[in-house]
Amino acid sequence: MRTITTAQQAVLDGDGRAEYVRVSVKDAGGTYRDLTTYPGVNMLKRVSWEDTIDNPSATCDVVLTREQDYLSLAPLMAASPLNLAFTPGGSANVLLALHREMKVEWAIVPADTTPAAGDWTLGFHGYVDEIEVGSGSDVLLHCRDLGGYLMDLFIEKERAYGLAEDTVHVGARIWSAGATFATGEYCIPTDGKLAAAQYVYKCTAITTGTTGTAEPAWPTTLTNTVVDSGVTWTCQVAIDNSGYPVEEVMQAIITNNLPSGSLTLYVPSSPSWDIKQFKQQREGVLTALRTLAQQLGWECRYKWKSGDSDFALTLYEPDRSAAAPGDVVHTFSASDYSDVTQAAVRIDAIRNVIRVIYSNSADLDSSGNPRRAFYEATDSTSVTAYGRRFMEIAESSSSQIDTSAEATLMATAALNDLSEPVLEHSVALVHGFPWAEVGDFYTFTANQRHYSADQSLALASFRHTAEGGRIRTELTCRGKPALGVAVWADKDSRNGETHEVQSLQTSDGITLSTASVVGGGRIFIENSPRHGALPDEYEVHLSTSASFTASTSTLQCVTRARSVELSDLLPGTTYYAAVVPRAFNGQKLITGYKSTESSFVAGRAQAGHINSELELGRMPLNGSFETWFDTGGNPDYWTGSVATFQVQTDANGISGRRYAKLTSVALPGYMESALFSVQTGKRYRLTLWANGSLNNFTFTAGLRWYTQAAVYDSASSTVSIPSNTAAWTEFSVIDTAPANARLALVRVSTPGYVSAIFFDEIRVEEWHEAPSGVSYYGPNSWADYGGSYQAVEVYIDRSNRAHLRGCAAGGTLNATAFILGTAYRPSAQLRFAADFNGTHGVVLVQTNGNVDLYGSDNTIVSLDGISWLVGE
Amino acid sequence: MSYLAVCGVETSIAVGSLRETVREIGSADVAFDGTATKSRLAVKRDFAFRSTPLTQAEAYAWDCLLRGLGHVWSFDSTLYSSKGLTAGTVTGCSIDTTEEQYDGTGCLQITSGNTFAPASVYNTSIGCTVLVWRKATATSGSGGHTHFICTEDSAGDNAYWTNGASKATGSLPDGIAIASGAVTLSGYSAATRYFDDLVVLPFVIPDAWASQLYTLCNAQAFSSLPRLYVNGDAVPDSSRTMLGECESEVVPAVLSGSFSNAARQISVALRQV
Fold this sequence. Notes:
Chain A is mainly β. In chain A, strands 1, 2, 3, 4, 7, 8, 9, 21, 22, 26, 27, 28 and 29 form a 13-stranded mixed sheet that branches. In chain A, helix 4 (246-257) packs antiparallel against helix 5 (285-294). The relative contact order of chain A is 0.06. Chain B is mostly beta strands. Chain B has helices at 56-67, 209-219, and strands at residues 5-6, 9-10, 19-30, 36-50, 71-73, 93-96, 107-110, 115-116, 128-135, 145-152, 158-162, 165-169, 176-179, 182-186, 193-201, 228-231, 239-255, 258-272. The A-B interface holds A 15-20, 40, 68-72, 80-82, 86-89, 111-112, 114, 333-340, 430-432, 447, 468-470 and B 25-27, 29-33, 35, 37-43, 77-87, 89-90, 224.
């Protein structure tokens, strides 16, 4: 309660008093104008001001006479002397304007006397929030106290606080691209780079003052600098986590966000509470300050500060200990009030089980984030008397309630405030009592009608109304000094709105079950948490080792579903799965504990998975066009360009169920297979069957070679296919994969004229090597027989069998005719019977490659039909 | 001393009609336990009376005066009247606070060639009266003031009194003009002129009021209309500031030795502010 001066006490003790009120508003020049005298007449009709413990700021309503003669208080009456500062023809100088500072002063003096200058006492100090001029002949001013401005003042830039001693009074912004900084401001790296830096950086020089598009390489040596586009940062101080007094951090929040001037937080008694680093989100300044204060059950609001004779933003603890008569600051008897307008007790505000959920800084998860924990306080006496009445306060992950001790303190404070029913007692005093302050502890003596014993109650709200030469005061009292019930009710998260910050201890809630699928496994998540609501999503972790630690290397996916299928696993391998529940508080990720593991064996494909009609190993894949999943498009593994490419499903093909029709238009087009592997230097044979009867244009088919990187290299020889073949006809072409070829595809090109042709059974197979001539051994004079006979050649077929063909003649018998290359030599000497010009002879193939001819006639020697396995 | 004067003009009260009532500003309450309580800001004393029969002109003048019609410029700090009226143009007009004022803290200074002409806001077809102090040209510092009471009747004819006496007709003093109810104060042609305590009343005062009004103005500033300065023997606390209302009725009476069936008798209520 505000101090009652000796003179005022004498008036209170006397039998008569005079109650005066005046309202002053600052004009545009900052001079207070007393609305009871400045206009020349008293324009004040009525003023009321009130405060309640449930609201962060006091309010005031003023009713004024809108005009008297030419004197108008209406702001839009431009010619009114009051809006011209009594200067004819002067510039507009509106007296009543929004956000003008105003004050209500009162004086209570002996009856029939007028107040002296020193008798006036400030009752309300605030700003004009609303001006209403349309109500009859009145002007209504709606005002909030100085805290109202702080409520509206928005924290536009996020800052981190509690970082280090250098920044405790100013905070540090989080670096962002294109942001504007001033010299002297502090910043910290973004989350992604903070862990590596762990320093606070100070803007020590600017050019443009704007940061660059990419985060700079933060120096990690003190005093080192880095230029960030238009800003120079100096490594200023290392971040510590020792904590800093909350009142200093609160002062920093105020200083950082006041657009001008200064405001000092008044702290009569320090809470001795150090808070650690946190990021102050964007919200109202007063909201931010009260959030910090209320985390420990304290309050931050404007209170009367007698030393300054004004209201000051004050951090204070409600005097919860006040309960004894000695704590009472004033006693009201039944002669002090005219009526008891309310005296009731209610159960709806009782809470006797308080659970505080918080992020425990002493228990971090694998990502370094605090795990969620809770503390529960119970008043068993209250539970017995009124039944269990539960309340849950879920503190955000950025809350300074991050230890068990702090959560205990908060829960206890709430329990003290809410566990017992309180008498709500409202009285209308017969006189004004403008010394009242919310939180005052008053005694109302027994009035023998509502109560037969004195009642000591805390003031929850008051309302003073000055009108008609008197002040009326209404008081509403409730229980003990405390935070407002509404303050605690705002924190109650039982409705689930803040479920994302509920407890996420999965060990008592989540059960996994698993099943094998081909090439992977399926995980089913069952969650019946004992505490809190379901998390937002789950991290799914997998390892081939049991009892693994969840980390980024084991993370497979994040899901909100209850069933997850993991693929691309090693068939036949045993895997261990676990999930980690997680939620978001704003944009802050909160992870819980890893669940118990469940194992499965990644499944193998069964024979039944394969369609019996599918040919495996052939090139190109789906060369007979039998698979066609996209029935509105091309057959599988085939594409077309310009030309129309359709799958035919009638019986006119030559194999399987389907074949293809390629329709040409007036521009060149093609159809192409998917890529398949080839080996450089190998020969490949493309065969395809075609059938057409339309026009007589030429389609061509061939292979296109691609490099290992699937880049086109060159084209093979092609085979021409007339579009009027009339019957199914096989076409083929053979070519050798060039040096760079590792992949190939089949392309059938259209003639560039309107035509059509059907295709089926397109196949590419590795072909035997091309036969090559032998190297005759010169001293023995053998040579090809020549003429119409095949020259002597050798080649190896696809079965690794070497073949000789052709006829030789004229050389020395029983001697070496030619020598085979090493690739053709057998592992042991071989004898073959051969025709020596109609006589029997022997061809001896030796391991050194010598081929000797034994016989009696060298006129012509046939080597056809001789073959052997190479190297076996 | 008068028995009861309003703005220095003695009232003519019918015998036995004057009543005084007392108002207490504050409240008298009964507390919850039956205790009577009182808070009192002030005690206000109000008058009510009926006049003797008056002529039509006198009755009208009283009606206007009691209702507080008119404007008063003290020129102490602004160029505005007590009701917020000023001249449309104030070029060359300012408040002088260097002892040129007759009383208060300031007076009107008009430089050469300029005028102060507050807008006419009343129906002036039945005339008006102007009271003002004018400082002599050659006088500097305090003193040298002359009080003028000037009138313009319904016919547009002017008259004026100097220091409450010596009525002159057909003209107005230099620097003061009234034309169809519009009042103009003018500076000298070649020098600054000072005026103080300008009062514009939207009616023509009876001649008998001139000396009484001068006496008041000579002693103190005219009350800020619509507030009325009330004093006299009937006011034990010597003077009050009051707000007035009145009603009139037509009565037959002998006025100045002649019978009139159009005399008026007014009922007056004065509330202390």
